[in-house]
Amino acid sequence: MDIFLRNLSLNDAKDFFYAAWDENVFRFIPGFYCDTTDKAREIIKTLLSDPTVTAYVIASEEISFIGIIVVVEKGVQEGKNAYELSYFIDVKFRRKGFATKAVKKIL
């Protein structure tokens, strides 16, 4: 299945919540546990307001929300622009190669 990336928006809060409610998704990111739709909306607002962050929804023609992938600019390190990638995939779509495809699209 082919995927595409689209910009994350506040309209994605409900899907974001359902994909991210599991504490295992955000257990390594303190303060980003998503236990309500309002919390999902606040997390999205935080991501969208940070000029060093670009957040995308991973989707396909058949599936409107597979997960998200986030690119964070880390500045220049060792003479090169450095970036950090983070992502999560809805539990229903894990282990199907969607994260790998999304990372390849980013790179």
Q: What does the model show?
A:
The protein has 107 residues and is α+β, with helices and mostly antiparallel strands. Helix content is 32%, strand content 30%. It has four helices and four strands, in the order βαααβββα. The chain has a four-stranded antiparallel beta sheet with strand order 1-2-3-4, with helices on both faces. A hairpin with a 7-residue loop joins strand 2 and strand 3 (67-77). The protein is globular.
How much of the residues is beta strand, in percent?
25-35%
Derived from helix and strand composition plus strand pairing, the structural class reads alpha+beta
Low-confidence stretches: none
Portion in helices: 25-40%
> Could you give the order of strands across the largest sheet?
1-2-3-4
Major sheet description: 4 strands, antiparallel
What distance separates the N and C termini? 19 Å
Order of helices and strands: EHHHEEEH
**Residue-averaged pLDDT, rounded?**
88
Total number of strands: 4
> If you compute it from the alpha carbons, what radius of gyration comes out, rounded to the nearest whole angstrom?
14 Å
Discrete helix count: 4
